[in-house]
Design a protein that fits this description.
Helices cover 0% and strands 48% of the residues. The chain is an all-beta fold. The strands form two sheets. Strands 2, 4, 5, 6, 9, 10 and 11 form a seven-stranded mixed sheet that branches. The protein has a four-stranded antiparallel sheet with strand order 1-3-8-7, with no helix packed on it. It is globular.
Length: 127
């Protein structure tokens, strides 16, 4: 089992940047595929980005390609989402998630593969 705690959210102006971090407990962090999702008020939770166990494979929602970068440090049990050129439509609660097992990248965006979720961190982008 793994516990996830997100941090780094906040209020930023349009065009600004934020760096979200997810700290994971447990000694098997390196075996998990890690993902970031977001949920805006009144909307479904949607996939943002994911990274495989080694960090060698990443996968992004089309809407964030070129703006967001996911990375991980298995020695520190952390996964990071670097976000640039933020827009008001990026406002949401951003959640970190962990999936145990091996999946092909085209499955990384599926919520059902993620067994563990953090509480989320609020990102608000003002216009």
């Amino acid at each position: 089992q793994v516990q996830l705690v997100e941090s780094g959210g906040g209020l930023v102006q349009a065009g600004g940047s934020l760096r979200l971090s997810c700290a994971a407990s447990g000694r098997t962090f390196s075996s998990y595929t890690m993902g970031w999702f977001r949920q805006a008020p009144g909307k479904e939770r949607e996939f943002v980005a994911a990274i495989n166990w080694s960090g060698g494979v990443t996968y992004y929602a089309d809407s964030v390609k070129g703006r967001f970068t996911i990375s991980r440090d298995n020695a520190k049990n952390t996964v990071v989402l670097q976000m640039i050129s933020l827009r008001p439509e990026h406002t949401a609660v951003y959640l970190c998630a962990a999936a145990r097992g091996i999946y092909s990248p085209n499955n990384y965006g599926k919520r059902e593969i993620y067994a563990y979720w953090g509480q989320g961190t609020q990102v608000t982008v003002s216009s």
